[in-house]
Amino acid sequence: MTEVKSGSSKNKWIALIAMSLGVFMALLDVTVVNVALPTMAVDFNTTFSNLQWVLNAYTIVFASILLIVSKLGDMYGRKKIFMISMVIFVVASAINGLATSLPVLIAGRALQAIGGAGLNSLSMALVASNFEGKSRGTGMGILGSVIGLSTASGPLVGGYLVETFGWPSIFFVNVPIGIIAFALSWKYVKETPSYGKGQKIDFLGMLLSGAGLFTLVYGLIEKEQHFNWGWTDPRVMGWLLAGVVLLVVFVLVELKSKHPMMNLKLFKHVNLVGATFVAFALGAGVYAINAYLTTMMQNYMGYSAFSTGVHQLVMSIWALLLGPITGRLGNRYSKRWMIAGFLGLGVVAYLVLALMITPNITFNELVPGLVLLGISNAMVNPLVNNAGLEGIEPSETGMASGIMNVFRQFGVTVGIVMLGLTQSNKYEDYVNGHWSGLNLPVQMSDGLHDAFTNAGPFAGHTIAYNSRLASLPQIGQLRDMILHAYNHSMVAIFIAAAIVMAIGAVAAGLLMRDSKEN
């Protein structure tokens, strides 16, 4: 494996390009598939419910494998595992693009997630080891901006590729990018020492951590797909309890292991603990809401997938513009209070969105809130990655970054479920409370009511504007009521997200410390 001496300033920036390409591909593929699902449904002649597993297979495996690949990188060299992950990701992408059946595509997505987890987690640790001093903050800032941009640009990239070249292109595009990133990584990324000498692989710890995270995420996804199931339903609670039990057993095993997969003493670092809270808040409060903003723009504002991505640039572009300067600011000012302050800006952003949204919302009315939210994410994400690794031994930066990434990804999953339940409950409450005022004919009232409540806020607009209902005398009132119900549900989502961001801000202020305070 080629190693590059740290003396070359030019080499480390080229290495950063390679690592940024890797993490961009990995995180983009978490969201880029969303816009391709309608086309896939036609090509595979299947239902949207079945296609959800194209998304879920990636999400579940991605979250489950993050800690494992982080540990392997710490033990055997992060560059080595990063490049192996890239090969897996590229090969899986090609399989996905060539898939002629849904089972093959789902299996390919699971394989792709293994590679994506390695690219995502190890890129942060590699930047930490390839950069020193003040340049490390700049490098982490740029990587953080790429992380934020990749997560937010899924609708734009996916919409363009699907509309222009068809859904396989969202996977095939990874092949040339991956080859370029592999070549740059081979030549310019500096390998880290192999810290695994004299250690044994903790297979039991890896099995327990992977199984615990798998079952937790699976239980949350089951709840997301079946909002009518209660939390105590065995089909939900059973998975969640199993996940908690497995993770408790994992902790007990790690405490007694001579060569644990995870050194639990890492959690003595207050910055890492604070960073996990902030990462979770970013996942649940920012990245999870992208799906709901996209739905609003497409289903209720009438934008195409590509146009939605273009309009969301007012939010996502800030990651690209501000990321490079966050590291410099973090070197001069308190990372702790900058993180808390810009999370607070995110709270303001959501309150602005909640105040501005109306049943006939225009894009111009969304712009102030989206801009503030984009700035909040662009500043916090790079800063928390850098702050979370402060004081961590070089041999364990991979695992530390893996922990932050697990909490960020877990936050996304929890956030999607939490926001979805909030939205559905508010939507149904409004529909139920105003349905009798429509004075619909008795013979159709119950059937239509069931249709709208079962469809929920995602599909309610589509049903209301279906041509088959156009002759209904009360159609104007019905459509107006559905728009108001959706409006109330989005206000509830924005307030819930603001609360999550506020908790993250408080956690950053209370739990984190500046380097001079450690």
From TrEMBL:
Domain of life: Bacteria
Listed CDD domains: MFS_MMR_MDR_like
InterPro entries, per the entry: EmrB-like (IPR004638), MFS (IPR011701), MFS_dom (IPR020846), MFS_trans_sf (IPR036259)
Cell membrane keyword on record: yes
Domain Major facilitator superfamily (MFS) profile span(s) in chain numbering: 15-516
Signal peptide bounds: none
Membrane topology: Multi-pass membrane protein
Gene3D superfamilies per the UniProt record, alphabetical: MFS general substrate transporter like domains (1.20.1250.20), Multidrug resistance protein D (1.20.1720.10)
A GO molecular-function descriptor: transmembrane transporter activity
Record's keyword terms, sorted: Cell membrane, Membrane, Transmembrane, Transmembrane helix, Transport
Compartments, record wording: Cell membrane
Pfam family, one: MFS_1
A GO cellular component entry from the record: plasma membrane
Transmembrane keyword on record: yes
Membrane-spanning parts: none
PANTHER family referenced in this protein's UniProt entry, alphabetically: MAJOR FACILITATOR SUPERFAMILY MULTIDRUG TRANSPORTER MFSC
Protein family: Belongs to the major facilitator superfamily. EmrB family.
Protein name (record): Major facilitator superfamily permease
